[in-house]
From TrEMBL:
Note describing how the cofactor binds: Binds 1 Mg(2+) ion per subunit.
Compartments, as annotated in UniProt: Cytoplasm
Signal peptide start-end: none
Organism: Sporosarcina highlanderae
Catalytic activity: Endonucleolytic cleavage at a junction such as a reciprocal single-stranded crossover between two homologous DNA duplexes (Holliday junction)
Swiss-Prot/TrEMBL site (Transition state stabilizer) positions: 102
E.C. designation(s): 3.1.21.10
Location (main, coarse): cytoplasm
Protein's recorded name: Holliday junction resolvase RecU
Reported function: Endonuclease that resolves Holliday junction intermediates in genetic recombination. Cleaves mobile four-strand junctions by introducing symmetrical nicks in paired strands. Promotes annealing of linear ssDNA with homologous dsDNA. Required for DNA repair, homologous recombination and chromosome segregation.
Family per similarity comment: Belongs to the RecU family.
Gene designation per UniProt: recU
Length: 204
């Protein structure tokens, strides 16, 4: 099925934007995308009354449908009705959570082209309302995961806008983020890492 943005540009899933093979994947995670891992984690949070966090549905307008059989319909072309904001949102300990999840096969940096301006603006507005906005970045080749708070990410975004580098180096991410160690259940306990990060910010 072909899906297009409001401006008509063809949508390409993030995992298709970068080619390459993941090295040394764990057996339990083989073949899973970051979205799969987060969906499993969020289901664990929900079933254990830890948080209510879901992936945001994307409104789609169907353009063309084929009917290969009377009882079957196949959507062959569709458009996003409006630009998406971020991937996930919900409530945790009375706090509003809103974040974007991104994967990169780059070993040394995170390309800022993976983030759209309207997503940055959305996270800024969430932060201004005292919500918790952040990026969850996975370096797939390195099998490493990081929570990047919006407040830190914003500085690197502004650096790019002002003509600086168009990526955040891995060393910069290591310095300004909390790294998540993947586990079994939950797969990515990002809320525990986020709690540590919030406590660190309060004491600084």
């Amino acid at each position: 099925m072909t899906i297009r943005y409001p401006n008509g540009k063809k949508y390409i899933p993030a995992q298709q934007l970068e080619s390459g093979k993941r090295s040394n994947p764990s057996f339990s995670n083989r073949g899973k995308t970051l979205e799969d891992e987060l969906n499993d984690t969020n289901e664990y949070y929900l079933s254990n009354n830890i948080a209510v966090i879901h992936k945001k549905p994307v409104p789609i307008q169907v353009v063309h449908v084929k009917y290969p059989a009377r009882s079957a319909a196949v959507i062959t072309e569709a458009y996003f009705r409006s630009p998406s904001t971020t991937d996930y949102n919900g409530v945790w300990n009375g706090k509003y959570i809103d974040f974007e999840a991104k994967e990169t096969k780059n070993r040394t940096s995170f390309p800022l082209q993976n983030i759209h301006e309207h997503q940055v603006e959305h996270m800024r507005k969430v932060s201004e309302q005292n919500g918790i906005a952040f990026l969850l970045v996975k370096f797939t080749v390195l099998d490493r995961y990081f929570i990047v708070p919006y407040e830190y990410f914003e500085k690197k975004w502004e650096r790019m806008i002002e003509g600086g580098r168009k990526s955040i180096t891995l060393s910069e991410i290591e310095e300004m983020s909390i790294e998540i160690s993947a586990g079994y259940n939950p797969r990515l306990d990002y809320l525990s890492a986020l709690e540590k990060l919030q406590n660190t910010i309060k004491t600084n």
